[in-house]
Fold this sequence. Notes:
This protein is α/β, with parallel strands linked by helices. It is 48% helix and 12% strand. The protein has ten helices and six strands, in the order E-H-H-H-H-H-E-H-E-H-H-E-H-E-E-H. The longest helix has 20 residues, at 42-61.
Amino acid sequence: MAYKDLFFDLDHTIWDFEQNSKETLLDLHHKYGLANKGITDFDAFYDIYSQHNHRLWERYTKGFIKQEELKWKRMWLALLEFKIADETLSRQMSLDFLEILPTKKTLFDGTTELLTYLQGKGYQMHLVTNGFENVQHQKIKHAGLGSYFDAVITSEASNSLKPNKEIFDYAFAKTGATATNSIMIGDNQDADIKGGINAGMDTIFVNHIGATPHVKATHEVFDLPSIAKLL
Length: 231
């Protein structure tokens, strides 16, 4: 076996962030009567929220903004696009979003089958995520993923973010793994693949959306079941 330790990303790799996020935002759209406030097109609201969320996450991972600003400003900016300048509502929706989101359970097709197969082959499996500590642990719990992973390394716990080498150094120290016997598996080329390369690991780019590669991963797959053929 070429590898002993497998490091997985969570969001967008095995846990379907887009689907779970959309369901959560729809819950909040109903709860706060946003249709009565002028947001009659939920899909448009979700698309705008996603754009702001993506941009703010990029700024957060590069160290330009703090965690708290990311959490509430993505909602604030989305509401502003519909001429709702209500900071109190934005902050409350942000709190509710992070309460509801991790209770959602949608995984990418083949997730549990792949993890069961890999576990059966004797791999030690871990998660390395830039997500928030408590939120990520709740996602793992509600999605029934806890039994598969020996360690969960978050940016909060490690005081670093992918693709920085420090988060992987923390992961190696916590798990006893080494770069030479480990592989990083994730969907984000700039965080997961660059991060794995920075740490000296082989990498698997999980290209769910058929993106054009701009970082050279060791392997590229287009769905999770294909990973079994590599390991």
